[in-house]
TrEMBL record:
Included stretch of the parent chain: 213 to 539 of 539
Protein species of origin: Streptomyces nondiastaticus
Similarity section: Belongs to the peptidase M4 family.
Record-given protein name: Neutral metalloproteinase
Highest rank taxon of the organism: Bacteria
Regions that span the bilayer: none
Length: 327
């Protein structure tokens, strides 16, 4: 059996991080010594195959091509720990089996994606190969697509597609807060570090989704016609409202001001409870065709299971849905 080692890495977005690695051959490799043995590979700008497992003579990582790999390896470990320690889920399929990560996909590729077929995570390097899409919230967002696929199986179009996307933003955000990383503090923004718009603005905003110029803040009957990354808006907004409540608030130094439909007042119950409610609903009540109305019903059932149907949590869940115009 190869020895489990704790290495150190200089990441792109999370500062200096500890890495779980494995000693093998002439040095070390980016193979987690725990967490199902998650491995991180270099595609070296290619677009197919598994790539080359990252290896290093010492257990200190981060030079050149390794830098994005440090983020990816760290992101996979944090996401694993988040699901295990917060939600009691061991691995994406809850079977203890690890996925694997591939970095440096393509040339100037501005996306990252989860693939059920390879059961693997892939990251592009961004515009001009300058901003790899390896921030923790993006990593946890993508791997959460694997969790949704293994559970509710929300169809990736129409309202269910928006709920699928929102599920990834919700757990991506919850994992970012869970990591409590000094360089990448938790926030209700998605992709705030990867400069995907070229002007430093985030990809998405959970407190007021319309700030991205395409997402909706509230449900309406035409929501399901939008791209799933926009129809996710109201559900992201629901999660923000349930966690933090309506109105103005500052969390970890970031200021939010979350509006509600008809100025409904929502009292937040905290992110941890909101996360557990969404997960219970996803894994117990949501199906491939769950729409916003059914998500309201499903999360209320999940809340009744967890906290009782006369609880403050139950009232808050109802108010948060009403706050995004889901009655
Ligand atoms: N980054 C995109 C997403 O997770 C990739 C995709 O294939 N949809 O939504
Ligand atoms: Zn997604
Ligand atoms: Ca974020």
């Amino acid at each position: 059996r190869e020895a489990i080692e704790t290495g150190s890495g200089t990441s792109t977005y999370s500062g200096t991080v500890q890495l779980s690695t494995t000693k093998g051959g002439d040095g070390y490799q980016l193979q987690d010594g725990e967490r199902g043995g998650h491995k991180t590979y270099n595609l070296s700008q290619g677009t197919d195959g598994t790539g080359t497992l990252f290896t290093n003579p010492t257990d200190t990582w981060g030079d050149g091509d390794q830098k994005a790999a440090v983020d990816a390896h760290y992101g996979a470990a944090v996401t694993w720990d988040f699901y295990k320690n917060v939600l009691g889920r061991t691995g994406i399929k809850n079977d203890g089996v690890a996925a694997y990560s591939r970095v440096h996909y393509g040339d100037g590729y501005v996306n990252a994606f989860w693939d059920d077929e390879c059961f693997c995570m892939t990251y592009g390097d961004g515009e001009g190969n300058k901003n790899p899409l390896t921030s923790l919230d993006v990593a946890a967002h993508e791997m959460s697509h694997g969790v949704t696929s293994a559970t509710a199986g929300l169809n990736y179009s129409g309202e269910s597609g928006g709920l699928n996307e929102a599920t990834s933003d919700i757990f991506g955000t919850a994992a970012e807060f869970y990591a409590n990383n000094a360089t990448d503090k938790g926030d209700y923004l998605i992709g705030e570090q990867i400069n995907i718009n070229g002007d430093g603005t985030p990809l998405r905003y959970m407190d007021k989704p319309s700030k991205d110029g395409g997402s909706k803040d509230y449900w309406s009957s035409s929501l399901g016609r939008l791209d799933v990354h926009y129809s996710s808006g109201p559900a992201n907004h629901f999660f923000y409202l349930l966690s933090e409540g309506s109105g103005a608030k500052t969390v970890n130094g970031v200021s939010y001001d979350s509006p509600t439909y008809n100025n409904v007042k929502v009292t937040g119950i905290g992110r941890d409870k909101a996360t557990k409610i969404w997960y219970k609903a996803l894994t117990t009540y949501f199906t491939s065709t769950t729409n916003y109305k059914a998500a309201r019903t499903g999360t209320l059932k999940a809340t009744a299971d967890l906290y009782g149907s006369t609880s403050a949590e139950y009232k808050a869940v109802a108010a948060a849905w009403t706050g995004i115009n889901v009655k």
